[in-house]
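Review form for a predicted model. The reviewer records the input and the model, then writes brief findings.
Reviewer: anonymous (R2)
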Amino acid sequence: MNVRDTETVDTGVRNSWKKAHALALKNRNGSNSDNNSSSSTSNDSASFDCNVADWDVWIGHMLGADHVGHTYGAKTKEMRNKLEQNDRDIRNIMNDMKTEKEVYKNALFLVFGDHGMTDEGDHGGSSEVEVNSFLFAHRPHGNIKEVFERDDDDDIIESEMLQIDLVPTLAVLMDVPIPFSSLGVVNEKLWNLFHYDEKDDADTNNGEQRGSASFAYALDQNVRQVWRYINAYHRVKRFETSAFTRLEEMHGRYQNTSRLESTGSREKKKELGLAFLRETQTMTRSAWVTFGMLSMVFGVIGFFGVLLLYMYCIAYFTSKADVTDAKFETGRRKKVAPTSASSATNSQSFTSFPCLFVASVVVYFLSLAARCSNSFIESEREMYQYLLATLLASTCIDRLRFHKNKHPRDSFVSSNRFAKDGVIYNAILAMICNALLARIGDTWVKTNSTEEISSSRESLLIFATFCFAMSHHLQNFEMAVSWIFWAFSATYRNNLWYPRIVFACSWIWFPVTRQFESLSPRRRLNSRDFLWTLLPVFAVLTNSTHIGGVFVLLSAHMMNFSSKSIGNMLTLFPSTSRPDARHSSLSKSRRDEKEEREKTIFLSGSIFTACVASLLFSQVIFYGGGHWVKFNGLRFTAGMTGMDSFNWYLCGILLGLDTFCGEIISVLMFPIFLSYFSLSSSLSSLSMRGGWKEKQQEGQEEQEEQKQKRVDLNVRSVGFLTLAFLRGLGVFVSTFFVAYERRHLMTWAIFAPKFIFEICSLLCFECFLVFSFVLASKTRVYETLSEKKIDEDFKMRERTRRSKVYKSRA
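Model under review:
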C-alpha cells in the first residue's frame, strides 16, 4: 500500500492474467480434465494456484492509477503514462479473449473503478468527480448491436447505473446467491449483453424473447432478496409507517402480476419489479443517508457554548486567585541578583520564554490539527508517545538553560542544586517508561486463554511484579491485600473470587475506612492513595493478566516521574521579575502591576503545561494498554472479570474501566501538578495527617492562612477547569470535523469510530474529574511533594515559631 510504488501491483495483475490465460488454454486442450494433480505440477500454472485445475472468475485489482493520483495528481504526465499503460493491458486481454473463441465464447470482461478522483488526486468526498466512475463492459463473442442504444453516427450512447447495482448483477450472472443486505437492482443491459449470442443476429426476436424471459427470472430473485432483507430490518428497527406501507402495496401488486403468463403481463411485471426496487432504495436512502442537520447544528452550537462557559469560569477564578499575595511554590525559592547586566538580561530572557511553555502550546495545537488527518489517527499511538517525549525533552532543555543562567559562576552551588532537583533524571526515567509502554502496546495480543494456571515464566513475572509493587507502593493495608489477590487471580485464572476481593478492597473497603477516623486515625481519603489502591483493579481487568501488573505500574511510574520532572522545573521558574535598570525607572505602582501580570502569566503557563502533560499521559496509557480506536479493539473479556453471569450494567462498568483506565489514572494524578503551586496546603495536610496542630499566635496569622486557602482553592479550580476545557476542545474539533465531512468516505471508516471513542472517554473523564476535584478540595491534600521536603519546611517553621516564643518570654 505504498502510494509511491506505482508498478508492483500492476505488474502482479499483469502476470496473473498471463498465468490464468495459460491455464485456460491447457484446459481447452484437455490436459487437466481428468488429472487434477497435473495442473499443480505444471510450470505455467503452479505459480498461479497449486490447487486450481480450472477457473470461472478472474479478478485483477490495479492500484497504479490510484497511487499516481495520490503522489503526482490527476492531470500530470505520470498519470497520462499510467493510463496509456492500462489501456495496453486492457487491449491485450481483449485480444487474448477474441483470439481464443472456444475458450472465451461465454466470457464477459468488465473494467470499472470504485471511485473517481479530483485534480489533486484525492477521493472519498461527495463531489461529482469523486463519486462518479466508469464501467466498460465487453463481450468478445456476443451480440451487442441490439443491447445498447446508438446515436446517428452508430456510436453507443453512454448510460448510467448505480454502483450498488453491480453487486446483484454479478451475482446472478455467476449464478450465486445475491448478498443478503444488498439493495442493488439487476442491470438489464449487462444481463442482455451476457445472454445475447452472435447467432442471435439472424433471429433478433428469438434472442430478445429468451433474454427477456431469463431477465424476468433474475429480477424475481432480486425482488425476493430485497423484500426478505427489508422485512428483517423492519422487525428490528422500524421504518416510517407510511413509507413501508407503500412498499408493501407495491410488492403485493408485483406478486399478483407474477401469476399471469402472457407477454404483456411479463413486461408489466418487470416494470413493477423495477419500480419496487427503486422505491426501496429511495426509502432506505431517506432513512439512512439523510442527516439530521438541525440536531447536528444544535449539538455543535451547544458544545461550543459549554467551551465558552469553561473559558468564562477560568477567567473568573483566575481573577479571584490573588497571585500577588499568594505564597506559590513558584515564588518560594531564593532569588539571587545577577552580578552583571548581561547575566540579568539572560535570566530575564529565560523567564520570558521558557521552552516548556512553548513546547506545550505547540504540542497541544499540533494534536488538535492532527485530529483532522486520517494518517494521524491510524498512527496515533506513535504520535502521542512522540509528543510526550518532546515535552519531556523540552523540560530537560529548560533545566540546562536555567543551570547556565541562574549561577553562571558558582559552579559548586549550581551543580549541587542541579543534582538535587532531579529534573533531567526523572525526565529520563519517564522517557524509559514511555518507550516500554510503546513496546507493550505494540506487542499486546488479545487472548482468551482457557488455562486454569499460568505457566512458569508467567508466574515468575507475576511474582517479580508483586514484589516490586509491595516494596515501592505499599501505602496502606488495603493495597497490600489487593496486590496479593491480584497475584492469585493472575496465577489461577478461572477463580472468580480473587478478582472480586480486589474490587472489594479498592471500591468498598478503602473508601469506608477513610471516612471514619476511628478505623483509620492517621489517614484520610486522598487521590494519591485511592489511585495506588486502584492499580490492582486495572491490572486484573486486562485479559493478559501476567503483563497487566507491569502495564499499570509502568503507567503510574511514567506519570510520577514526569510530574516530578515537569513540576520541579516549574518551581524553578521565577514568578517575579528581578530588579534591573529597566525596572528602576518605573514607578512603584507600575512595577507592582508588571509583577502581578508576570505572576499571572507564569501561573497560567504552568497550569497549561500540567494540563497538556496530563492529556498526553491519558492517551499514552490508552494505547500502551493494547487498545486502539476501533470497535474490535475493545477487550470484552474485561467485562466478565469476576462475573459468572452477564449483567448489562456491571459488565459495562468493568469494560469502561479497562478501556478508559488512561483517563482515570491521569485525572486522579492531576493534583500532582497542582501540588507545586501551594506550599501551605501541603503543610496543613501533613499536620492533619500526623496529628500536629500549630497554635495560632495572632489573629492576623489566621487570616493570612484562610486567605491562602482561598487562593489554593481558586488555583485548584483554574487547574481543573483548564484541564476540562482543553480536553473538551479536542473532542469539539473531532465532532466538528465529522459533522463537516459527514459524507466523506474516510469518515465512517476512521473518523466516526474516533469520534465515538472521544465522546465516551470525555464522559468518563468528566465524571472522574469532578470526583478528583471534590476529593482534593475536601482533604486539602497535595501529596506529591516529597515527605522529606515537607518535613524540612515544617521543622523550619517550627524552629521559627519557638524562637519567637522564646524571645517574647525573655
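Findings: The chain has a mean pLDDT of 75.
Further findings: The two ends are 87 Å apart (CA to CA).
Recommendation: see findings above.
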